[in-house]
Design a protein that fits this description.
Length: 401
């Protein structure tokens, strides 16, 4: 499997330029911006290290790296890498008075901020998360190519590879392990990244039968018990696959940092119950309805409202979750994180723009059976939305002969 090319110097310079312009136009006083989130560091420099990326109002950019300076230099094409052993070393390159500072308030800890204040004066703090999120929301041709490639491999994984891994008596944990191994063989970049605070997940959610509607803190419609209360995001060792089980597989696939998101449901060794089959098909209809509205200028909250108002009766009780575990969205942006903006949900009123990538995931819990439904990743273009992950399918019946 060939390696995908890293972001070019021109690509990174354009991203930094757009961020600088957005900070100038933010409405807040901007003297300095400090980026500590490593995914944002990668987006802006092409490398993620233990360090701080600093932008100044005069347009200067420096990446102060504690470890690894050598790797940062090998990976980033930008001549901005500066070694540091402590924040005090930054004084050799930037003034002690940082003025009005933008930081990632959801990532930078109070401890880091206090250590910075030992050496620097900070007049006031503004959040930069929303500004960067809006920049990352619109994908460049380079980013779209990577997500498109992820989507192709993702479709092959769920349509061809996963069915061949299902066998009587396999545990959820073993299936997740087997799927992960195949994903890496297919070029998966190794992790499924979420911006959700303290979210730990290997590749996604896998559940047999009612395990797929087990309560979970993960902000999604599916569920899983996990290995234990201490590791609730990996499949169970004790839940084994039996004939007639539904198998719910909701995983991300990543190529060179960029993800696609897709869900497939299988029925092992038997046709699915009629109720489950009908609900799954109803979810496919919802996907078609919602994806037809993904176009520049569309309002995410209005798409959500339209879907919910026309929801068929059979889906209303356990749509987007089961019982009290329902979530209030039907889709989300995808990119360097699996959970990005925009979100197809109430309150998201910024119009969609071209070259946004969105995963739609209408799903429904079925009592005594498990989770059904679909998820596909779409590119918002000037015309109709393009599905990048192959398209939704019926529940796949997998023989165990």
């Amino acid at each position: 499997m060939h390696e995908m090319a890293p972001p070019s110097k021109i690509e990174l310079e354009q991203r930094l330029g757009r961020l600088h312009a957005a900070l100038i136009q933010s409405g807040h006083r901007y003297d300095t911006a400090i980026i500590c989130n490593r995914v944002n560091q990668y987006y802006l420099t092409g490398t993620m290290q233990d360090g701080l990326l600093v932008l100044r109002r005069d347009g200067s950019v420096l990446f102060f790296v504690r470890k690894s300076v050598r790797r940062a230099g090998l990976e980033s094409p930008l001549p901005i890498i500066r070694p540091m052993s402590s924040y005090k070393d930054m004084l050799n390159s930037i003034p002690a008075d940082l003025g009005s500072v933008f930081i990632e308030t959801g990532t930078m800890t109070v401890a880091i901020l206090e250590r910075l204040k030992r050496h620097f004066t900070i007049d006031r703090v503004h959040s930069i998360e929303g500004i960067i999120a809006r920049l990352r929301m619109v994908k460049s041709p380079y980013e779209i190519a990577l997500i498109r490639e992820a989507g192709v491999r993702h479709g092959a994984l769920l349509n061809q590879t996963v069915p061949a891994l299902l066998r009587p008596g396999i545990s959820e944990a073993q299936l997740m392990t087997d799927i992960y191994a195949r994903m890496v063989e297919m070029g998966h970049h190794g992790v499924s990244r979420f911006s959700m605070f303290q979210m730990e997940m290997v590749i996604g959610q896998i559940g047999f039968g009612e395990a797929s509607i087990y309560p979970t803190s993960f902000d999604g419609p599916g569920g899983m018990a996990g290995l234990s209360a201490a590791a609730p995001s990996v499949g169970s060792r004790s839940r084994l696959l039996h004939q007639g089980d539904l198998v719910f597989v909701d995983v991300g696939f990543g190529v060179a940092g960029y993800h696609s998101d897709k869900t497939r449901v299988y029925s092992f060794g038997a046709k699915p119950p009629k109720e489950a089959l009908e609900m799954h098909r109803a979810c496919m209809d919802v996907l078609a309805q919602a994806s037809s509205m993904l176009r520049p200028g569309a309002i995410p909250s209005e798409i959500y409202q339209s879907v919910m108002e026309s929801l068929p009766d059979m889906l209303k009780t356990n749509f987007m979750g089961y019982g009290e575990e329902k979530v209030k969205f039907i889709g989300h942006g995808v990119g360097l994180h699996i959970d990005e903006i925009p979100v197809i949900a109430p309150g998201f009123n910024q119009p969609l723009v071209e070259n946004t990538v969105i995963a739609l995931e209408p799903k429904c819990g079925v009592s005594g059976v498990g989770m059904v439904g679909v998820e596909e990743t779409f590119l918002v273009s000037g015309g109709s939305a393009e599905c990048l992950t192959g398209g939704a399918d019926e529940i796949m019946v997998v023989s165990f002969d």
